[in-house]
């Protein structure tokens, strides 16, 4: 039986070398205000606040957002929620990169003009003087690494940003390593937190990326820990897609996740979930939390019940043998590096 929110009591773990401690499961808010391909708003302001309340009740204190989520509404709603609380008790992370104004190429990427403007704007929406962790949402190859790190260091020195992070879709350890070497040589703030996509079926970061993070003691907070919902158990081989599912509204999701190879992984996930009396989602999250080098997965949900189920993963303990079985179900493509 899934425990109640006030029975979960999330613990904290070190956030790499920042000196901060993060909730063992971070709360991702990318669905707040998001409009789907079918024109539906996934989570409105009222439900967003209900979800934040639920996360808080479970002991969670780390909120992850981005300036483009919900066209900025996500940050505004978080800011309104925080306004009724002691800001210092919460760690808030946001991201900048994606284009925000049509026809303005300088409103995209990590050039100094864009980054400075975007940080000022997100601080205003969040109604706060500082952001705890600022991520670059993706890497911008048009902005030299030296220019980027000098800009980001200026934000840290101004007090608007405390720590720096890099989010990615594809492994890019060498780019982070190069940028950090530049920062260290100049006495600037380096990246200390990494945010890759990582889950039981998306294993691209295994190998050099995770090894780099372990060697440099960088925090790793994976996004999409449930494969955009594939690992929750809502999909069956050959069955009709649920009307309210991600797959029903996204052909890209169907092509990326609804494969025979991934369903084979899910079979093993279901078997281990039965052994530990947990849901597939809880088991997948527990596996990720057990992976060497992973600091704290980022979990999200559409409803309070879904969030409660996901957060209860913190109460699931897997044996070494179960972790290995799940790992072996789909070996990562970078194991030999």
Automatic annotation (TrEMBL):
Keywords: Oxidoreductase
A GO-annotated cellular component: cytosol
Keyword presence, NADP: no
CDD domains: AKR_AKR9C1
InterPro entries xref list: AKR_Detox_Biosynth (IPR050523), NAD(P)_OxRdtase_dom_sf (IPR036812), NADP_OxRdtase_dom (IPR023210)
Any one GO molecular-function label of the UniProt entry: oxidoreductase activity
Ranges of residues in domain NADP-dependent oxidoreductase: 24-329
Protein name: Aldo/keto reductase
């Amino acid at each position: 039986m899934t425990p109640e929110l006030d029975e979960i009591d999330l613990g904290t773990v070190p956030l790499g070398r920042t000196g901060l401690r993060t909730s063992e499961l971070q709360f991702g808010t990318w669905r707040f205000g998001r409009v789907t391909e079918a024109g539906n708003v996934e989570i409105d302001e009222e439900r967003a606040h209900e979800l934040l309340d639920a996360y808080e009740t479970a002991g969670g204190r780390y909120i992850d957002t981005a300036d483009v989520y919900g066209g900025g509404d996500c940050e505004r709603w978080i800011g309104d929620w925080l306004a009724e609380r002691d800001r210092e008790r919460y760690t808030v992370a946001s991201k900048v990169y994606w284009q925000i104004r049509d026809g303005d190429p300088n409103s995209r990427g990590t050039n100094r003009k864009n980054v400075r403007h975007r940080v000022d704007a997100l601080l205003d929406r969040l109604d706060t003087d500082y952001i705890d962790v600022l991520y670059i949402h993706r890497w911008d190859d048009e902005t030299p690494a030296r220019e980027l790190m000098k800009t980001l260091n200026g934000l840290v020195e101004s007090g608007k940003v405390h720590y720096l992070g890099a989010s990615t879709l594809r492994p890019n350890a060498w780019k982070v390593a190069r940028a950090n070497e530049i920062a260290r040589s100049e006495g600037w703030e380096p990246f200390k937190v990494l945010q890759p996509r990582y889950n039981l079926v998306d294993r691209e970061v295994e190998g050099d990326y995770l090894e780099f993070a372990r060697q440099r003691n960088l925090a790793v907070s994976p996004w999409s820990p449930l494969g955009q919902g594939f690992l929750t158990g809502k999909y069956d081989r050959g069955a009709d897609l649920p009307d309210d599912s991600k797959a029903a509204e996204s052909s890209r999701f169907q092509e990326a996740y609804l494969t025979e190879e991934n369903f084979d992984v899910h079979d093993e996930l279901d078997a281990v979930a039965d052994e530990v009396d947990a849901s597939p989602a809880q088991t997948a999250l527990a596996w990720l939390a057990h992976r060497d080098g992973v600091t704290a997965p980022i979990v999200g949900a559409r409803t309070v019940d879904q969030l409660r189920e996901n957060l209860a993963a913190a109460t699931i303990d897997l044996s070494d043998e179960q972790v290995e079985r799940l790992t072996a179900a789909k070996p990562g493509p970078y194991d030999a590096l």
